[in-house]
Request: fold
Amino acid sequence: MAREFHYGGQAVMEGVMIRGKKAAVVAVRRPNGELALNIRPLPAIYTGRLRQVPFIRGVIVLLEALVLGISSLVYSANVSLEEEGEELSRGATWLVLLVSIAFAVGLFFLAPLFLTRVIDPYINSSLVFHLIEGGIRLVILLGYMMAISFLPDIRKVFAYHGAEHKTIHAYEDGVPLEAEAVQKYSTAHARCGTAFLLAVLVIAIIVFALIGRQVVWLMVLSRVLLLPVIAALGYEATQYGARHMNNVLVRALVAPGLWLQRLTTREPDDKQIEVAVAALQQALVVDGEGEEEAQPDSS
Reply:
């Protein structure tokens, strides 16, 4: 069933966040087994015309995912731990956001650059230099994902990630949003952020290779300033792939991103599916496309 709007989201602590047309809905399982629902209306920048402009929308979506992701994680952590923690202030949210971006840029973009420069005297080709840098970047990403997957809390988050994907698949196919029907679907999805990360890594190799080997300060600057450009290209590539999965060549190009999701998703149980379904159903209610079945958490 074709959909004009594509629902999506992310896993959080003991729950799922679904991004709808008008709001982000977070559903979290409380320690007593009950569900807590929280609705966050989306600011105009996330729903306006710029959100539809190719390439510009990629940067907006990235910012949206980071801001909504952090606030949703804080809310879910408070609920799942039964804490009454206050909402992060706007200043605190931006501070956490900037620290997160700095960590990601340092680990996945600057570290591979400096590691490659260690063997720079032995590399004659600019293309080979950037292929090695890209390979190191991929190894760091895979190592990071594998390392955090050993943490019990992260494994549970990955299961909710799988529940989110299965629920979105079921909704897009128009089947009843019930655990038995939803469980039949794959935990991998072409529009997943994991696939987006892989697209960014591949595109980064191409972009940086076009710049070539320059003095170190210029190469560092390019890794920072060109990140929004690379993210925009990665978003467009991921969305194109998701829209053309019936094409054999596109499926082959998308396959590595789907495979990589084996590291960031796990098979959920029915209770986890229930949480993801509750988040999606509430998002549909807010958008005027579903029937009210639960009341949002008042916290």
Notes: Residues 8-286 form one domain. The mean pLDDT is 91. The chain has one domain: 8-286.
